Amino acid sequence: MSSAQPSVSNIRNPERIQKNVWKSILIEADRACRAQPVISSFFHCNVLSHSSFREAISFYLASRLASSTLSAMSWQSVFHQAFADEPDIIQQMLNDLLAHYHRDAACDEYIVPLLYYKGFHAVQSYRIAHWLWRHDRKTLALYLQHRISRLFDVDIHPAAVLGSGIMLDHATGIVIGETSVIDDDVSILHGVTLGGSGSTKCNRHPKIGRGVLLSAGAKLLGDITVGEGAKVGSGSLVLGDVKPYVTVAGVPAKVVGSARIKMPSLEMNHNIEEE
Question: By the 8 A CB rule, do 191 and 172 touch?
């Protein structure tokens, strides 16, 4: 992928983009119905019967999160409360969808992450859990964290702070702890842990800068900072701060090169560049 692809910071006229993306999703759903009539009801139920991206994503995620404890209708009500109180959540969700579309070479339609990518589903469900947490509805937020973990194999504490344009690629086994902070335009591969160090109630989880790429299986532990535009190699163990625009790898991780571009998260190149 090219480093010229859009990031959150250079998106202009978000309302127009949201309408255009939704229009494309409707076209893709209609095309899928004609190509595979046997599952046309799936696309009608989850996309074509809705009037907007907001309505579709709340309906679909509510149906995924539903259980005998809490119905889909109840979850939809929670989603709508969050959207009404904080409309920016919708734009964050759209930015996450665009992140998958532009960074994942296997994603050639907008509808693909919306309906099929559990990393996308986990982050959008987390956004509602985070809203609940900040509004002192912590019991429901923790229950939602539990549902996300069971359904999507992604464990994000509702108190963690995630920016916009976040992509969890494949997503299986990702853990993001309570005091973690992730800036905009970050890409995280499966098996990554942002874990705590210590048992005291304090800042004990990593802080990830804008444009960072965390490769598969990387473990980052403690109240450390990974600087903007850095890259962490697969299977690395990071126990200390990482400077901006460098590549670290190994156990324990050490600097092995420098990033060729300012935002490696957009390019998704996991090679190690020598200094």
Answer: yes
Backbone angles phi, psi at 273, to 5 degrees: -95, 130
Residues 14, 45, 59, 189, CA torsion sign: negative
This prediction has a pTM of 0.94
Distance CA 224, CA 266 (A): 23
> In this structure, which amino acid lies at residue 83?
F
State pLDDT tens for residues 152-197. Answer: 999 999 999 999 999 999 999 999 999 999 999 999 999 999 999 9
